Amino acid sequence: MIRSVLKGTGAALPRNRVSNAQLAERVDTSDEWIVERTGIRFRHIAESDETTGTLATEAARKAIDAAGLVATDIDLIVLATATPDQTFPATATKVQAALGIDDCVAFDVAAVCSGFLYAVQVADAMIRSGVHTRTLVIGSETFSRILDWEDRTTCVLFGDGAGAIVLAAEDSDAEQPRGILATKLHADGRHNDLLYVDGGPSTTGTVGKLRMKGREVFRHAVVNLAAVMNEALAGLDLTADDVDWVVPHQANARILDATARKLNLSPDKVVVTVDQHANTSAASVPLALDTAIRDGRIKPGDLVVLEAMGGGFTWGAAVLRV
Questions:
Q1: Which residue numbers in the chain have pLDDT < 50?
Q2: Taking CA atoms, which of 35, 42, 167, 290 is between 20 and 30 Å from 65?
Q3: How many other CB atoms are found less than 10 A from the CB of residue 214?
Q4: What's residue 22's pLDDT?
Q5: Count of Cβ atoms closer than 10 Å to residue 229 Cβ
Q6: What are the counts of helices (DSSP H) followed by strands (DSSP E) for the chain?
Q7: CA 220 – CA 235 distance, rounded (Å)
């Protein structure tokens, strides 16, 4: 059986690292208020010369290098983002050009914070179909560009960054096969008004700003994330007890804790980077995955679950063996 095997990871963060205390100099907030409600202590904010595309390219280069490949080995780029460099063309094509790849399939996926999980399933399906063999899957965001800096309930939650992985086709008939084992995705557009941006090319002709009803989003997140993780594992006749690590969307430390409790999952199995990066939307899962692989927590052979939920609502999970 052909499977999509993880070959390398990479990440990129803007130069400007902003603490809660620094943020409190421009926003009516405090370090204590932010930490108590979110667990966030730092975030990175892009400078004028840093974009979704430049961050994605840096993360991609690191992932390709970690995979032991060169850029021209890549035949597919799927980039998840809600903050593209331009309305069109796709930011993925800008990354392709920056990497020096003359021709490969390259496109963006828009599913907000779940975007990376959506991109993983797309890439996995294209690999298993035999159409592509070495793919670059990226989550990259500059959410600071769409924040209302007068709204302290939302602007303190988000940061900028990018994460990338290389997936490659491999024959895998082993008893414990490596690679992507299962993915489950969902969407429910009835909840648009709970988390959205109040602009767009075909409505206002502007980019707009992020709007969120935090209490309602929290409630849906805990229920949906626990359910989709169990759903993905059940399809493999596995349970949370079989999982070595969960790499969740880094939205809020309280959501991570509540989801772990709902799953009866030890907090020691959950990779947490929200304190350092804040919520980087589609970038948060690959950023956290790269962190845990590079610091040695996630090792070859480990069973890992990736999961996320975002505006739409969209949500999903992926099970892989590293």
A1: none
A2: 42
A3: 15
A4: 97
A5: 27
A6: 10, 13
A7: 23
**pLDDT tens digit string along 61-77?**
999 999 999 999 999 99
What is each CA distance from 250 to 35, 56, 157, in whole angstroms? 14, 18, 10
Active-site amino acid positions: 113, 249, 279
Q: What's the confidence (pLDDT) of residue 176?
A: 83
State phi, psi for 277 to the nearest 5 degrees: -115, -15
Q: Which residues pair with 287 in a beta bridge?
A: none
pLDDT digits (tens, 9 = 90+) for 89-134: 999 999 999 999 999 999 999 999 999 999 999 999 999 999 999 9
CA atoms of 73 and 112, how far apart (whole Å): 28
pLDDT of the residue at 276: 98
- Asked whether the beta carbons of 307 and 225 are under 8 A apart, the reply is yes
Distances in Å between the Cα of 42 and the Cα atoms of 23, 94, 198, 252, 310 are 9, 29, 26, 13, 21
Contacts 24+ apart (CB under 8 A), 84-92: 84/52, 84/108, 85/51, 85/52, 85/53, 87/201, 91/52, 91/53, 91/56, 91/140, 92/56, 92/138
